[in-house]
Amino acid sequence: METDLRLESSLWVGNKRYRAVLTGWHFNWTEVDKKNRDKKTISVPVAEVVGVEEGRVEILPQKSVEDTDKDFTVFYVKRFSSGGSYGLLWRLGRTQFSCPSRALRDQWTKHLRTALKTHSPLRPHRLLVFINPFGGKKKGRKIYHSVVAPLFELAGISSHVIVTERANQARDHLLKKDLAGFDGVVCVGGDGMFSELLHGLIGRTQQEAGLCENDPAVTLQPCPLHIGIIPAGSTDCVCYATVGVIDPVTSALHIIIGDSQPLDVCSVHQASSLVHYSVSLLGYGFYGDVLAESEKHRWMGPLRYDYSGTMVYLSNRSYAGIVHYLPADPQDSSPRDRTRCLSGCSVCSRSTERLFHQSSDSGSLYSSHNSQYTSDSEGEWVTVEGRFRCVSLTCMSSSCPKSPLGLSPSAHLADGTGDLILVWDTHPLGFLKFLYRHTSTQDQFDLPFVEVHRVKAVRFSLPSGKEEEGYEDMGATSSAIDDEERGYIETVSRNGSQQYLAERGTERRTTNEQKAATPILCGLCCSKAPAVSVWNCDGEILPNTEIDCRIHGQLVRLYARGIEDRAAVHNCSEEHDNKCERIF
Ligand SMILES: CCCCCCCCCCCCC/C=C/[C@@H](O)[C@H](COP(=O)(O)O)NC(=O)CCCCC
Ligand SMILES: Nc1ncnc2c1ncn2[C@@H]1O[C@H](COP(=O)(O)OP(=O)(O)O)[C@@H](O)[C@H]1O
Ligand SMILES: [Ca+2]
């Protein structure tokens, strides 16, 4: 196959002559200049060629084609370091080539297009795009039409665009409407919009497979359609953690070339009913309170989280709870190993092997997907009880612009596990130190009141007497660092048998909505504060407090490739400047 696609000839770029070679996997051109001994070769992987057009083509400020007989234009991915962000910015590179004859020009365009088809099998041809016009700074529509649509057009992708008119419209569409002919689904918005696509696609796939999503023991069917994210939200955590930058052009280019990144998903259940799915933050206590408070200030846009974060921090709350978790195999990886899950991650690759290819009848990736679930009886559950500032579970690092390394910097995107972070009640300054470390490279787990565990499943319950939500004296939430003072016990028990400590405090019933509406500063000025927090599930407030969570390895696939290791990437320009032939 490779030899069929090989083509080599002289080509001109401007008035300079180049030797151009297409090997199948790569398209290279090297300047032919006898005086220039330091011959620089530009090498573009065929998989990163965005489009090939006859003539001299530009696409900005609008598409213009100078339809000359002997010219062709190649558009491809160029990388730039992105300053503040961890990942690399992708931009559209463009080179206009001239050939000595029309026949050679036609040979080049034909070979390049054939190579593209052969080496990029997952490139989408038709996409279903949902734009949330109200996400983030409300720029979703503009971002799509001015930046993304021209790139899709250049790449020959046709899209059906739906600008949403209500919450959950995208989810419902994916659950009920005809999806035939689409290769992927794209959201233009934030983590909430991504979550709608996630729920729609997972639900649809299970319906079609005849599987029941309510049962946490059921092995779910991986979704056949890829998800693309054009970031236009407030936190944009899923995009940041899978691409490394918040940049619509970079994300559009990952979609165009058909990148594929599997992602673990956590299903959240209560009493054998599915409550929600989560990929990034499932957080009780601080993060739940921040979300509940922020909903009242949506008009502030993304700033609502900074404001609410400050208010919730000042309210100085902690909550009683019992956490049961099923640890993952410590031989596979550890949340404290100070590694990063980067593009081509070996831990995730080994997990693919374990999740999909180990069963006896391993055939296709999807058909052998029923060997991954470890039932309660197989593992050794651990139970801890006490007062927590926050309890968080994340299937990935959950890095975002606010926290460039994320909630759990060494978590993996696709290893079939999640990281459980327990922050015990502590002094306000201690908690501030924990939060502050998320903004730097300091280890937020290296604190005496913080624990992190790599897990396959988690259960959260309230101490007996606190099953109903209520209020208690603020005195009971005051800071405590040592185990005796905070009054928790840790038990290791088989088959989920648990030992509980009775908790003190008086309760009064309330609903999750009431909890969310509790004046946040009551921790500072009043004697009562809620005894129960809410769960923040990827930006949604869950209606339940006692939950049962299970990680499903590699349940969905994104048009992404994980964060690229800058050191390992060669064609990366130092800074993003105006000198190169970039279009966007
Ligand atoms: C003293 C400095 C404190 C800085 C604390 C930084 C901690 C940041 C960790 C953020 C993890 C974010 C995980 C993602 C959550 C999103 O799903 C969710 C909804 O996003 P969106 O749909 O875009 O609105 N975002 C949040 O819950 C915001 C959490 C902010 C916490 C301060
Ligand atoms: N047209 C709409 N009107 C109101 N809410 C919407 C609409 N479209 C989507 N939503 C909801 O808005 C929420 C927030 O959207 P998102 O795009 O994540 O923005 P942000 O990151 O600013 O929260 C999502 O949970 C989604 O369900
Ligand atoms: Ca994971």
Spatial gap, N to C terminus: 34 Å
Bound molecules: the ligand CCCCCCCCCCCCC/C=C/[C@@H](O)[C@H](COP(=O)(O)O)NC(=O)CCCCC, adenosine-5'-diphosphate, calcium ion
- Mean of pLDDT: 85
> CATH first level of the largest domain: which class?
Mainly Beta
Q: How many separate domains?
A: 3
DSSP E strands, number: 27
Question: What best-fitting shape do the alpha-carbon axes yield?
Answer: elongated
Query: What fold name goes in the CATH topology slot of the largest domain?
Result: Tumour Suppressor Smad4
Query: Count of helices?
Result: 14
Low-confidence stretches: 359-377, 470-517, 523-527, 574-584
- What structural class is derived from the secondary structure elements? alpha+beta
Over the alpha carbons, how many angstroms does the gyration radius reach? 26 Å
Helical amount among residues, as a percent range? 10-25%
CATH architecture of the largest domain: Sandwich
Our estimate of the beta-strand percent is 25-35%
Taking the sheet with the most strands, its summary is: 11 strands, antiparallel
Structure characteristics:
11-stranded antiparallel β-sheet; 4-stranded antiparallel β-sheet; alpha+beta; Tumour Suppressor Smad4; binds calcium ion; 23% helix; PH-domain like; 14 helices; disordered C terminus
